[in-house]
Amino acid sequence: MKIVQKGWGWGLAAALLALSFAPALGQLGEEARKRAAEIAAEPTSSAITAEAVKDLESWVITLAGIVLILVLIAINRVASLVEFAPISQQKTSNIHGWTFLGVGLILAAFIGYEFMYHTKYHIWADSVHGQKIDSLFTVTFVITMFVFVATQAALFTFAFLYRERPGRKALYYPDNHTLEYVWTGIPAVTLLILVGGGLLVWEEVHNPDLGGQKPQEIELVGEQFQWRIRYPGMDGKLGKHGFKLLTATNPHGVDSSDVNAKDDVIASAKEIHIVKNKPVLFKVRAKDVLHGVYAPHFHVNIYAVPGMPTQFNFTPTKSTAEARKERENEKFNYELLCSQLCGSSHFNMRAVIIVHENEKELNDWMSKQATFIKNEPASTEPESKATAQL
Ligand SMILES: [Cu+2]
Fold it and tell me: Which 3 state secondary structure label does DSSP give 266?
């Protein structure tokens, strides 16, 4: 009897703890609604408003989920006491069976909710290799989701259906070799196919077949806290660089004695200009700490490591204008971010990626940019004629 009392005490304490969250949650819900009303009153774009409200809702629902789990633990605690009390075994089995069914349904509801509201956060790639990654992701997702749903549904419904009932006896079933082969073989083959597919896609991402096209090279140098962007200019060749040449006026450390460097274009650190359907090769360096070149809309992500150049090849499949039309958002821009938390102003490491419709558009823009030679007049005299010819 003592045990029963102690158990009830614990159960009650857990239940109270769980319920103590309820007012806080109500408050949060209230806050969410208030904030939503505030946001709605502000003269901002409606997309942002809806997003902010959804985010707050998500938080409230997540917290509600946690409270629910705590309540379930409390109920379970209480239910487990039944074993000590003089109640029939059968009643215990019924409680367990129904609890299983309830938990299964709540889990299903949560998964449904996740599908409805959070799958939209996946960015479908607008690049050739990115679409292959997306396909691989979809195939993996469909297969694993099918297995997940089937096994979880079986787990919860079987626990309910085959709970102890009068006159029913469990079947003693020691082993079955065929069954073992099947449920070991199928996952093994499936995983082999998925991992093999992953390896093939990895190979295509890092060694793409450009069909003989020469990629547009762009140098990206990460520094605290901005991206330095250099184009090869009309000759299509980036000039040499060296870290000893770094100065305030030569932030890329470009070697001015290299003839290929003369027409290099060092443009605004806030914009990267590329062309639709033309391969791009990012040549990546870092000056100080570890940064990461991250262009989520193209599924591009590679470290920028001090002392170790890296590179990434990709081909955009849509121009900025097309992307805006598709998203019905005139302000949409492709972005370049830093994927490493590189310091206090890490957030500042952003640049807009502008994808031009055709090469002419890019050349028009490029011709308006100052070349490296203009930025470094000290060493230009003998070669300035050569540059003028370009
Ligand atoms: Cu960074």
Answer: strand
Task: Give the C-alpha separation, 387 to 367, whole Å.
Answer: 13
Q: How far is the centre of ligand 1, averaged over its atoms, from the C-alpha of 312 (Å)? A: 17
Q: How far is the CA of 56 from the centre of ligand 1 (A)?
A: 29
Structure confidence by residue, pLDDT tens digits, 294-350: 999 999 999 999 889 898 999 999 999 898 998 888 889 999 999 999 888 898 889
Q: Token digits for 35?
A: 């904030």
pTM of the model: 0.66
List the chain domain ranges: 2-166, 216-389
Q: Give φ, ψ of 230 to 5 degrees.
A: -130, 135
Instruction: Show the 3-state SS of 149-173.
Output: HHHHHHHHHHHHHCCCCCCCCCCCC
Tokens found for residue 6:
């102690």
In angstroms, what is the span from residue 127 Cα to ligand 1's centroid?
23
CA 242–ligand 1 middle distance (angstroms): 21
What is the CATH topology of the domain spanning 216-389? Answer: Immunoglobulin-like (2.60.40)
**Count of CB atoms situated within 10 Å of the CB of 154:** 10
Q: What's the gap in Å between 295 CA and the centre of ligand 1?
A: 13
- 289 Cβ contact list (under 8 Å, min separation 6): 224, 306, 340, 342, 343
DSSP label at 268? -
CA distance 368 to 262: 16
Cis peptide before 372 (omega within 30 of 0): no
Distance in Å, CA 347 to ligand 1 centroid:
8
CB count within 10 Å of CB 151 equals 10
What's the CA gap between 267 and 232, in Å, rounded? 11
How far apart are alpha carbons 6 and 222 in whole angstroms?
62
pLDDT confidence band for 1 (50 / 70 / 90): very low
In the block, tokens 């039944």 appear at 82
CB neighbours (10 Å) of residue 292? 20
